[in-house]
Amino acid sequence: MTKEVCSNIGLWLLLTLLIGNYVVNLEASHHVYKRLTQSTNTKSPSVNQPYRTGFHFQPPKNWMNGPMIYKGIYHLFYQWNPKGAVWGNIVWAHSTSTDLINWDPHPPAIFPSAPFDINGCWSGSATILPNGKPVILYTGIDPKNQQVQNIAEPKNLSDPYLREWKKSPLNPLMAPDAVNGINASSFRDPTTAWLGQDKKWRVIIGSKIHRRGLAITYTSKDFLKWEKSPEPLHYDDGSGMWECPDFFPVTRFGSNGVETSSFGEPNEILKHVLKISLDDTKHDYYTIGTYDRVKDKFVPDNGFKMDGTAPRYDYGKYYASKTFFDSAKNRRILWGWTNESSSVEDDVEKGWSGIQTIPRKIWLDRSGKQLIQWPVREVERLRTKQVKNLRNKVLKSGSRLEVYGVTAAQADVEVLFKVRDLEKADVIEPSWTDPQLICSKMNVSVKSGLGPFGLMVLASKNLEEYTSVYFRIFKARQNSNKYVVLMCSDQSRSSLKEDNDKTTYGAFVDINPHQPLSLRALIDHSVVESFGGKGRACITSRVYPKLAIGKSSHLFAFNYGYQSVDVLNLNAWSMNSAQIS
């Protein structure tokens, strides 16, 4: 067995607002803002930084978008533009931590320096070999703008911080050619490798052929000479380019993590997860299924299809995620990247763009039908003053209660709701299958039998601005004893600034509403990470209020539905800032 690590490094369209003459197309999801990357590299971030996060990872300035543990130290590798707050000039930046929350920076680990990566060092992953040596597989862009796969290794293994890396003279190890039929502009993002029972390494690389998205498999005996397998690990016709794939086992019993090369009877002990980032939608999707180790094939379980209908890690702003097995604490950790919802001009003005979400522990639900995510426990060390001013309270129809005594712009909030009269729930129409569309049409101002009820965060005193995270409960038309729980994150009133992306997000939560409904929100100035049903649904939002900033930010629990809702318990903590140099 091996220890391993994956590095989530996003390669995609940074923002939907493109500025006139500044854009040069590289390929479907990559854009370089030439004048901006050249002119903003010497500019210091704005002194006034109301949207800079306090406990989420982000570099001091410029554009960014992971992780492994080596000799007890966590390493985060991420794509960073050292010259500006937009995509371009990408290097592999590097920071280390002992707790996943506080981070120290190091010089970039990898940067363009050779023909096989002279036009860019793009995404990849790391694997720790059986002898304990970590190696990185990454995508390089060669002089022909072809995407090729390269390897790098540390110069000094005795340095636990792995501050210097060297590239192999054998690079590129994997390259497109006329024989293998690989699309040279869609061949990127190698995963963490795993070791098969035949002692051969496997790695998958995201690709596409026309509209067929696929995970190409390569095998190797020595990690240097790689051979393309005749068939992909998995594919789907019509889904387009598969970026940043991830493939890992999960145990069917309990929440502990499983090392990537672990063996076991798949149907009895392990299931496998295949995750992809769809270039077309800029969302991360996953399927659960069985890995045939003999045929090197992944077979999704019934009900799963690897396309835009598959479940998502996060139903908000969240992309290019990667997991790694934390051998020190026997857990699998998920990292994700979230980009800005502000304009490119605003990003340049504030001097930075992009953050990492709080790392999440991830495991398989007892049902075997979905994954559960929860912020790592280490983030709770930042909690300071705890507020308990809502316990066994009744939120009547149209009521709103402010949570006092907490720093509302930088907080951790957990609330437990109990619904009384489920029979008063509205009936959900059979055509209502898109949760985001439902949340958009039925925003927080629209009353229903049960809901909306939840939290208003980053709110101004008089509610000119607020971001609402809430539940609605519906009855199924065909079965009055079956209920549907909807979770929404509504950004439509988040800021008085009009040119921000204020998309409303939504997700169905697979939970029985006869039981209490839990909601947790990590609030950090311009990001809100929400976890519904104890991590069964997650939504990340980026918001930029003009009034509800710093000490002028407020926090409310509310119920705008027709029926009363009980608050069994509400705990809120102000959060200290993490040490991120």
Automatic annotation (TrEMBL):
Q: What lineage does the source organism belong to?
A: Eukaryota, Viridiplantae, Streptophyta, Embryophyta, Tracheophyta
**Is Acetylation included in the keywords of this UniProt record?**
no
Which family does the entry's similarity section mention? Answer: Belongs to the glycosyl hydrolase 32 family.
**Signal peptide, first to last residue:** 1-28
The terms under GO molecular function for this entry are: hydrolase activity, hydrolyzing O-glycosyl compounds
Q: Which domain of life is it from?
A: Eukaryota
Domain Glycosyl hydrolase family 32 N-terminal, chain residue ranges per copy: 56-375
Enumerate the InterPro entries for this protein.
ConA-like_dom_sf (IPR013320), Fructan_Metab_Enzymes (IPR050551), Glyco_hydro_32 (IPR001362), Glyco_hydro_32_C (IPR013189), Glyco_hydro_32_N (IPR013148), Glyco_hydro_beta-prop_sf (IPR023296)
Query: What CDD domains does the record tag this protein with?
Result: GH32_Fruct1-like
Domain Glycosyl hydrolase family 32 C-terminal as annotated: residue spans = 378-574
Instruction: Supply the alphabetized keyword list.
Output: Glycosidase, Hydrolase, Signal
Q: What is the protein's name according to its record?
A: Glycosyl hydrolases family 32 protein
